[in-house]
Amino acid sequence: MAAEVGEITINYEEDGVLLVKELAKEILSKGAWATLIFRYQQWDKKKEAYGAEMYTIRRYRKVNGQYMQQSKFNISSPDQAGKIVEILNRWLAAPAA
Length: 97
Known about the structure:
alpha+beta; six-stranded antiparallel sheet; 6 strands; 52% strand
């Protein structure tokens, strides 16, 4: 857990092996509720190497001075990430009537 939004990480280590390696993060919003987007890789035990880059958006709520994860959305592939970007760009270019 983290007391400050900038301290939040998705790095996850087990038995001395970094199973989830955070590559980058951006804070989308902060306050009592914080939203972050991460770029990461997962360790593949069979290949003994990290897999493809993946992305996740996570929401955290500050409770008793510590940020706790409340929800997450995993973007399943670079193709899906591209589609999300494309749709958001289209929506932002043409505001709703």
